[in-house]
Amino acid sequence: MMNIDYELVGFYQAHPFGVCFNIDMFFSLVDYQSSQQNAVVLIYDPIRTRQGNLTIRAYRLSRKALELANIGDWSPEVTKQAGLNFSNFFEELPIVVKNSHLINVLLAELALSSRGKKTNTVVLELGTKRALERSVKASMGTVDELNKAVNAYGRYMTEKQKYDAIYASMMQKRAVENEARLARGEPPISIEEIKKQIKQPQMQTKNGMLDLFLGALDANAYASFQIAAANENMTKLHLSQALCNQQMSGSGVGVPSLSSLGGSSSERR
């Protein structure tokens, strides 16, 4: 007997920092959504979860992205005509976590048992320092790959402009030549031969604009994590300062503030 759910709704993956937008995940999601339109992928972030923040996100390919995936053409012209970019490539769906009644009772008892206890400063520790450092180091490779894709796109656009100029010039010459041939009673020359004479440029990436979109989404995921971690650390620093001032006020020892420390260091410089 096999434990298989009769209703297939998608799949899940674990990715640190929520950086999940790779080519394998994309094609897996295409296969799922081709058979089940409402299929989703759940992305679980183990880094944020270990820090006490359960991070689960649900993504689905947008209608435009799914249509282009079925066509298989990721050229800049086709993606531009479809109005597709990295911001509307995926759709993020809201997730609602519901606990059972027993879990709600347990959480309430834990909250009551923690009242009146000594202040716990563990939550003020800068636990995201190592994770922030790891994310910055990991994002460097993603940014390099994204830069290569952007440069390939820039070279393609330059070559495309040259191609369009040469093609327009040859078409104009062929039109004049055909008019002269018709005036002499000769059949016109086919215009299709011009396309065979000049080679149309190709974007020098393995999957066209798809690589650029996925790279931009990964870089954006790294940046979002780093911004959230930096804001959280700044909040903890200010809370730690207020708590330290409160504890030291009884002993008569003053604690310099963050702004005064910054000002004194600038004056020394």
TrEMBL record:
Keywords linked to the UniProt accession: Cytoplasm, Initiation factor, Protein biosynthesis
Entry keyword Transport: no
Identification of the protein by name: EIF3h C-terminal domain-containing protein
Residue stretches of biased makeup (Low complexity): 254-269
Domain of life: Eukaryota
Chain segments carrying region Disordered: 250-269
eIF3h C-terminal domain residues: 49-247
InterPro entries named in the record: eIF3h (IPR027524), eIF3h_C (IPR045810), JAMM_MPN+_peptidase_M67A (IPR050242)
Gene Ontology molecular-function annotations: translation initiation factor activity
Any single Gene Ontology cellular-component annotation: eukaryotic translation initiation factor 3 complex
CDD domains hit by this protein: MPN_eIF3h
Classification via Pfam families: eIF3h_C (PF19445)
